[in-house]
Design brief:
Order of helices and strands: EHEEHEHEEEHEHHEEEHHH
CATH architecture: 3-Layer(aba) Sandwich
Organism: Pediococcus damnosus
Protein name: pyridoxal kinase
CATH topology: UDP-N-acetylmuramoyl-L-alanine:D-glutamate ligase
CATH superfamily: Ribokinase
Keywords: ATP-binding, Kinase, Nucleotide-binding, Transferase
Radius of gyration: 18 Å
Largest sheet: 9 strands, mixed
Strand content: 15-25%
Distance between the termini: 27 Å
Structural class: alpha/beta
Helix content: 40-55%
CATH class: Alpha Beta
Number of helices: 9
Pfam family, one: Phos_pyr_kin
GO molecular function: pyridoxal kinase activity
Shape: globular
């Protein structure tokens, strides 16, 4: 029995982030995703204080061992935040040895704004690099890309240094469909990637503020679009556009608690129209 699609990332019981975003988005692309939480949290980690957490490191091998006995197999994987337990990374790697992916989209989540996330051990950098060598699509932000390469983050971004980072990380990870997210240029924010040996940039007007879950929405959309046979460039372009429109819609909801993350409702009809539903 092939369930086809497995989502592996954190599950926050409150807030529109990570798994809470990926499940409805991927479902609208005509998939029936299975889920494997990397860690359970009472809330996401932005603005709600320190969440209560339940570790999944002992449960994950029991899950995939049972799946193997029950002949449940997966072809397509979306992997995001795996937490700060190195054992979880090793167990996910073991799972990928049992289920060789047809498509693996890896959206690493371990660093931003020039540093590792709080309580994140340095070992996860190499853990994510190891996972990237099984990936078909790799979506680090600039901080993550530089940490993976043991490079200093450039003080000023240029086409030349971004091209160097993309080319070096492509060689190190062996991922051809690689993009660096969250790149700011003038009043724009977007994603850089290589196409026919030239750097390309898909972007939208930067919106002031932090909106939880936007990266998760972006990677879920890229995953769904590539599952639907879109090109990498088209997937990045549509995901960037639809994520921006979701942020604009979120801002309009002035009574909404900002800690709840980005609203998804504006994205749903776009996916349904794209699917011809």
């Amino acid at each position: 029995m092939a369930n086809k699609t497995l989502l592996i990332e954190d599950l926050s019981t409150v807030g529109s982030v990570s798994m809470s975003i990926a499940v409805p988005i991927v479902t609208l692309f005509d998939e029936q995703p299975a889920i494997l939480p990397s860690v359970l949290l009472s809330t996401h980690t932005g603005g709600c204080g320190q969440p209560a957490t339940v570790s999944m490191e002992a449960a994950i091998p029991k899950f995939y061992q049972h799946w193997e006995k029950a002949a449940v197999h997966f072809n397509n994987f979306l992997i995001g935040y795996l937490g700060n337990s190195n054992q979880v990374y090793h167990e996910v790697d073991n799972l990928l040895r049992i289920n060789l992916p047809s498509l693996l989209v890896l959206d690493p989540a371990f660093a931003d704004h020039g540093k590792l996330y709080s309580r994140m051990p340095t070992e996860v950098v190499e853990d994510y690099l190891q996972l990237s060598q099984k990936a078909d699509v790799f979506l680090p932000n600039l901080t993550e890309a530089c940490l993976l390469l043991h490079r200093q983050i450039p003080e000023q971004l240029t086409k030349a240094n971004l091209t160097d980072i993309l080319n070096e990380l492509t060689q190190k990870s062996e991922v051809i469909k690689l993009a660096i997210t969250g790149i700011e240029c003038d009043d724009q924010i977007g994603t850089v990637f290589m196409s026919h040996q030239k750097i390309k940039y898909v972007s939208s007007k930067k919106i002031t503020g932090d909106y939880f879950g936007t990266g998760d929405l972006f990677s879920s959309l890229v995953f769904g679009l590539i599952l639907n046979k879109e090109s990498f460039e088209t997937a990045l372009t549509l995901a960037n556009q639809w994520t921006t429109e979701a942020v604009v819609d979120t801002i309009k909801r002035t009574s909404r608690d900002s800690r709840m993350g980005v609203r998804l409702q504006t994205v749903f009809p776009k996916i349904l129209a794209y699917k011809g539903s």
